[in-house]
Amino acid sequence: MGKKRQKRMLTFQIGLLAINVVVVMFISIFIYFTTQQILHNYDARDFLDGVVAIPWRPYDKIWQCMLLLLILIISFAIREFVFPNNNKVVIATLACDMIAIMGILYVQGFNYNGILLLVFANIIFNMKSGKGRFFFIAVAVVSFLLADNDMLNVNYRFYSLDVYFHYYNSSIQQNLFGLYRILESLNIILFVSSCMTVITEQNNTIDEVNALYAQLEQANSQLHEYAAMSEKVAETRERNRLAREIHDTIGHVLTGISAGLDACVALIDVSPEKTKQQLEVISNVTREGIKEVRRSVNELRPDALERFSLEYAIQKMISDMTSVSDCKVYFASEVSNMKFDEDEEMAIYRVIQESITNAIRHGEADKIWIAMKHQESEILLQIRDNGKGCDHIKSGFGTRHIKERIGMLGGKVTFDGSKGFLVEARIPIRWGETYD
């Protein structure tokens, strides 16, 4: 419930309580004042001949009603201001209200049962659901039906307010009846208005809930669409990543085998023994390559990186390549004792691997120089060869994946084919802890 609605409901409750306090005190004071008038004018005998019963000690009725009304006011204050929205307090104070109101009805001879509307209003305002609500409503309905002066006078003797009104002349009677009916009508109007307000607020709440539900449904539908789109994007990225890993691994292994077999072709007529040794080397490299392919498919991370440091993995890759080809690879690193994250290690390793493979396969290079430097928050990686180079660099599978790998880390890569071939990559590094 919003603050405006709470304030509106509280205003109706205070209004109902105030009008009932006025009506109850009006009846009590009116009975006492009329009794004093009868005694003062010595009209007691004539008055008693026309009544069934009279109130005992009318003055006492005034302070008794005041005491019961004070209990109602205190109960209301505790429920609304001291312990608001407390179910146990609501039940206890509503029970207290019922007892106080039944006491007021009895003291006033059941001449005014409109005060029971205050109970209905308090139940509607403070009890939203539960068995307790139906219990209080049932008690209030039964009390409202039974608390009628005319019906009770059939079996019991209670004084009638109308008799006291008729004591006065017709002009005063009309004024008194008019004032009393106005107060009764105000009580009913306030009660009906408060009920209409509650119904309107509940309808508004239902409309708000329906609107929020519709928004939730729309958001849920959009979320499903986004999830499906994200899944497709993830599948595409994973497919591209798999393609890069398989290309890098198989391409590197096959290039080494091809270079080794070329060496065997050149040596077989000159030195069969050396050819045999070369074939053994090729066989070992092939087995390692098969393991690497299997591992790449399963885990997509080089086995050397899994077991060793990045620098050692690079050295081993260079050693395997040079052992099966005539190409000499020189590796110089100014970065030492630094720990990279897995994605950074993978990018550096694969860029070097792809560059060596391209230099031998496409550039027909016999010398490759690799340099890795630390520049502020970046790694500068340069791979240069003495191959035939190219005037126009075409974006092949290998170079495209080099760009993609570096791009995923927020880095940049450039290619230069004017003198041999140069790959220069700048890779931002999230520097980790040093290790020995």
In short:
The protein is an alpha+beta fold. The chain has helices at 3-40, 44-49, 58-82, 87-107, 116-126, 131-146, 149-152, 161-165, 170-267, 272-298, 303-307, 310-323, 342-361, 397-408; strands spanning 328-333, 367-375, 378-385, 412-416, 421-428.
Question: What would you note in describing this structure?
Answer:
- With 436 residues, the chain is an alpha+beta fold.
- It contains 14 helices and 5 strands.
- Strands 1-2-3-5-4 form a 5-stranded mixed sheet, with helices on one face.
- Strand 4 (412-416) and strand 5 form a beta hairpin.
- Helix 4 packs parallel to helix 6, helix 12 (310-323) packs parallel to helix 13 (342-361) and helix 13 (342-361) runs antiparallel to helix 14 (397-408).
- It is rod-shaped.
- It starts with a helix and ends in an 8-residue tail after the last strand.
- The mean pLDDT is 81.
Biggest sheet descriptor: 5 strands, mixed
Number of helices: 14
Could you tell me how far the N terminus lies from the C terminus, measured between alpha carbons in angstroms?
64 Å
Shape designation: rod-shaped
Structural class: alpha+beta
**What share of residues is helical?**
55-70%
Strand content bin = 5-15%
Pattern of helices and strands: HHHHHHHHHHHHEHEEHEE
Number of strands: 5
Spatial strand sequence of the major β-sheet: 1-2-3-5-4
